[in-house]
Amino acid sequence: MRSTDTSSIADPIKEKYNPVAIRRIAAIFLIGTLLIRSSYWPSWLGYFGLIVAAALLLNLLEMIGVDMGAMITISETLQHFWMLATAFVFLRTKRNINLTNSINFR
Predict the structure, then answer these.
(1) Residue 21 and residue 44 in contact, taking contact as beta carbons nearer than 8 Å
(2) pLDDT tens by residue, 16-48
(3) Which residues pair with 105 in a beta bridge?
(4) Which of 54, 41, 14 is nearest to 102 (CA)?
(5) Distances in whole angstroms, Cα of residue 71 to Cα of each of 14, 27, 81, 101
(6) Residue closest to 106 by CA, chosen among 56, 43, 15, 61
(7) Cβ pair 19, 58 in contact under 8 A
(8) How far apart are CA 88 and CA 82, in angstroms?
(9) What does the alpha-carbon distance between residue 92 and residue 17 come to, in Å, rounded to a whole number?
(10) Has residue 96 got a pLDDT over 70?
């Protein structure tokens, strides 16, 4: 007799569900929002972060079976460019940052 135990069958949604990706999207979104609201950092960097977060969010459509194809490569490349731009801006700023002035939001 054949067993009807389905616990060994992997659920396709659970296989593709990646909580690390969701946390990464949330982190980029929050950092982008803070960069936009900050008066110390350039706002274009924050808007670029929001675009990257939206592009990465589209990749989650893979969980429901939509083939994203090249969008995955494009969004990952955008994320790397955003990280490089953020690092460049952070390293090029003056060393004497007054924390009270950098937290003043618009």
Answers:
(1) no
(2) 566 788 899 999 999 999 999 988 889 999 999
(3) 38
(4) 41
(5) 21, 20, 15, 39
(6) 43
(7) no
(8) 10
(9) 38
(10) no
